[in-house]
């Protein structure tokens, strides 16, 4: 294995969804490097069908103060349906992921109030100092959403390489209209998800959560 491959494997292995962050902002130099490097992500016909808005400072604090109340009041709007259902092994992985998170937090299955509190932290961005909102311009669809996913993974790997943490959050897509309004984003840009990121609190119990991964043989078939 080459040194480059070893470093890459380490970065991929270190990337996890983290949910506790320090208030210390990331420097603009690092932000430029992470998001600039992510522009090398592949896309269909090199269309690069992604738009990202990075929110920090007072503007992020404003959103942190308003989104929880809007969610609890049912003031929601989505650009894409949130109606997928997991069955079989996929449901097992979903349950396993939730169990790993609640175990890390010390929350029992019957503690529904505490589980709801943990979920609501999505809308305060886990105290992160930065939020990236990822959009697809109209009329893009499934193929371009796959491109956006590759772009987002490149962003998160870049953050990890800089010693930072991140958490991708589809829950933030519940507030598509409101976020566009607050950030003066054109209605033709459709919100897919957000990524909260910053310097993680290493010792926080929630950041000790590690989810299982399928075996290579379960998902990859080699043909020759």
Strands, helices and their partners?
Elements: H1 3-14, H2 28-38, E1 51-56, H3 57-72, H4 89-105, H5 112-120, E2 130-137, H6 142-161, E3 165-169, H7 176-183, E4 189-198, H8 216-219
Antiparallel strand pairs: 1-2, 2-4, 3-4
Helix pairs in contact: 2-6
Describe the fold and architecture.
By secondary structure, the protein is an alpha+beta fold. It is 43% helix and 13% strand. The protein has a four-stranded antiparallel β-sheet with strand order 1-2-4-3. Helix 2 crosses helix 6. It starts with a helix and ends in a 5-residue tail after the last helix. The model has no long low-confidence stretch (mean pLDDT 97).
Q: What's the structural domain tally?
A: 1
Order of SSEs, N→C?
Answer: HHEHHHEHEHEH
Unreliable segments of 5+ consecutive residues: none
Q: Give Rg in angstroms.
A: 18 Å
CATH topology: NADH Oxidase
Helix percentage range: 40-55%
Short description:
This protein is α+β, with helices and mostly antiparallel strands and 224 residues long. Helix content is 43%, strand content 13%.
Task: Looking at this protein, list some descriptive labels.
single chain, 224 residues, alpha+beta, NADH Oxidase, 4-stranded antiparallel β-sheet, 4 strands, 43% helix
């Amino acid at each position: 294995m080459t040194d480059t491959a070893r470093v890459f494997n380490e970065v991929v292995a270190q990337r996890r969804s983290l949910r506790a962050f320090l208030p210390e902002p990331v420097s603009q130099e690092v932000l430029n490097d992470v998001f600039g490097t992510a522009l090398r992500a592949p896309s269909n016909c090199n269309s690069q069908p992604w738009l990202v808005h990075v929110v920090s400072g007072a503007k992020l604090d404003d959103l942190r103060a308003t989104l929880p109340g809007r969610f609890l009041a049912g003031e929601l709007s989505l650009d894409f349906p949130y109606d997928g259902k997991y069955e079989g092994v996929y449901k097992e992985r979903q349950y396993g992921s939730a169990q790993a998170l609640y175990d890390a937090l010390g929350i029992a299955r019957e503690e529904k109030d505490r589980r709801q509190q943990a979920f609501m932290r999505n809308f305060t961005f886990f105290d992160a100092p930065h939020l990236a909102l990822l959009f697809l311009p109209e009329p893009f669809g499934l193929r371009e959403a796959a491109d956006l996913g590759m772009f987002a993974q490149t962003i998160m790997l870049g953050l990890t390489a800089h010693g930072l943490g991140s958490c991708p959050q589809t829950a933030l897509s519940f507030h598509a209209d409101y976020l566009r309004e607050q950030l003066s984003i054109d209605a033709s840009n459709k919100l897919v998800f957000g990524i909260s990121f910053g310097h993680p609190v290493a010792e926080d119990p929630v950041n000790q959560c590690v989810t299982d991964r399928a075996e290579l043989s379960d998902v990859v078939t080699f043909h020759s």
